[in-house]
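Data availability excerpt. The first of two example chains:
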Amino acid sequence: MAIREAHDSVAVRRRNLGLVLRHVAEHGPCARTEIAAATGLSHASVTTMVADLTARGLVSEDGVLNRGGRGRPRRLLRMIPQRASTVGVQISSEQLRVAVADLAGTIVWRDATLHYGAAGVPASMADAIAAAVRQAVNAAPPDAELVRIAVAMAGPVGDDEAQTVLAAPDFGWLRPVRLRALIAARLPEVTCPIDVINDANAATLAEYHAHPRRPRGVVYIAAGTGIGGGVVLDGHIHTGSHGIAGEPGHMPVAIDGPACVCGAHGCLVCYAGPEAVLTAAGLGDVLRRNGLGPAADLLVEALERRDAQALAAVDIAGRALGTAILSITSLLDLDEIILGGALAQWFPWLDPVIRHQFSGRRALVPTAEPDVTRALLGADAALLGVIEFARRAALSDPATVPRRHSIVQS
């Protein structure tokens, strides 16, 4: 019993440290009294937590606020973002994109390298990730403590402790892969936590933070090799009961539609996925020969000159997207749908078709229509999102940063 109580006490202290540091990071410079009011902690607890965070080099006093009234002037606190660093890795079909950032989310170094991962061999991908992480660690500021590594991977990631990649067909991974364990085994010198998250969830988080107004709930739908996406509710990634929420590509939009690789029929990807759209537009051979980028660019050129076959292909995609969005918003009552990847590129032609799909419900419930917008971050979304994920995790657990000196109560 005593051991459990001690463990619970340590966990509470770590949680409170995170509460205080997150508030200073988001609202600083701020006073201890403001932190106490915002977090619900007592002033004495805040003072203790601030002393601890100061000893770890994470916060410092930043001047004095004196409003001219009675009482002692308030000493303001600010975070020292350069004290710690995070590493984010984004895995694409060909590249590993890696970045180092401080606790404010400012990227201080980034790189991209071809990974040449053998299809269907997760170990070779883990080797490449470990090499990229070592390169990033060597490039990080020497005085910064490495506190978190986060990896964004295509494919659903389970919400279990192992953060298992359930499947990654684009990489030939047709069975669950414990990718985090594979990476950790190759980085025995790294002592900080390592996370693996879905790349579309990472992109959703980044697009949410880039939004000029922070809606309460957003769904991100992006077309790359297929259609992926994510859900952010109240600023947090919503992964569902099993870690696989926010996979709109395999949402059925037609009962008697074509068979999908997932085993269902009439899935959204069968109509609005890049392969389906480009093939319907007569650019399937270009896609297979030259890849998505050149084929998608040619589709835009065809749309701009009002090519009938291209317009028909996008019309089908828009109607399928509109149907999917109606289902999503009926279930979740969201503020915004963000279209990314190739869908953002085709947005000017998709948007009117999608809005036409809303017309019947708009007439009945005009206030329930979500905003449908184009993604803002392009190819950087997943990398920026995985950095933001790592930053949030680090701020929530400042105890991963060692103390520089003994705590002196103030």
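And the second chain:
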Amino acid sequence: MDAQEPSDFHEGLAQAEEAAINPHKEWDRGRAEPPEVRDDGFGGRMLNLYRRDHTEAVLRNSAVFSTRVVAESMGPFMGPLMLGMDGDEHTAYRGLVSRAFRSSALARWETELVAPIVNELLDGIAPRGRADLVAELTQRFPTRVIAGIMGVPLDDADQFRLWSEQVSAGPLYPEVGHEASQAMRDYLRPIVEDRKVNPRDDLISDIIHAEIDGQRLDDEHIYGFLLLLMPAGAETTSRELGIALTVLLTHDGWLDRLQTDWSLLDQVIEETLRWESSAPLATREATEDTEVDGCPIPAGTRLMMTMTSANRDERVYPDGDRWNPDREQPVPHMAFGWGRHLCLGMHLARLEMRVALPAILDRLPGLRLDPDAEPPLIRGVAFRGPEELHVVWDV
């Protein structure tokens, strides 16, 4: 055996760990260099884009830069999904779900689901004075909200979240992804069949009974919607709430400022979304020969955009790597994407954070990091957030 192999192996692990904790180093370098199409190592071409103007140009031009690459990677696990649709097809299917996230619906969800769920979860931990907020709150809260909107029993939300995470990991772990996809379908089938005959005031019923060009969705499209909604609507928000709590707990003075002046809450939320998106990556595929900023892009090239890098672009956000809710005249960020695939659930995500943060700080007085635990780390590349957030408070 090569005597250097163990050292090389551990060095590789250390580099991978560093990249997961701080991909910003690579993203910062990418913004400083001109775009260049490269061999992806699998016989294809790849272009990584990090700057705000480059990212926005691609996401605005859905006619040339297609989302079909998303359908190719996730379709085997989710079935037909809206994220992989383009043009009129995408517009039609997006309209089916958009009604659940309109302003009047959000007002109802706030009083019927969002506030009661976060307070119920806080009821379970508030008397203890110590908790891992990721495991006991931020992972569970948005999952239950989405389950309630869909019409899935809230008691099953944690299991549903686990399946959703496994489905999302399908491209990396196909066997696990397929098993979880089938388990979700088996679980949802009796609910879907019941709603076909006995519709209720929930999203599953809306999807089943909605029509596109006079036709209702077939089962494959129904399940495609439902398998997408949980990871898209819960995982990203749970991670972003964890990021918000982490940054507040690690930036001296901000918890006190916020509790003294809640008018700062929206600034804190928007700056957190800009500074660290829980789902920073977006992929597209060029449908024809084109270019971005003078860089030739052959048809078939896959493009990877990093929204968090675009959100820290110094050309748009001076001192962009610094979390600073006091920024003057902030430019709209790209945490929820851009163009026609702008995240449909962005208003719900903001609502959940606006409700949860005051409730947490009110119910857990003197909230602070647990001195006996390791400090929290925001980590990940495709999905970012703290894996643990150990805290204590006064009881």
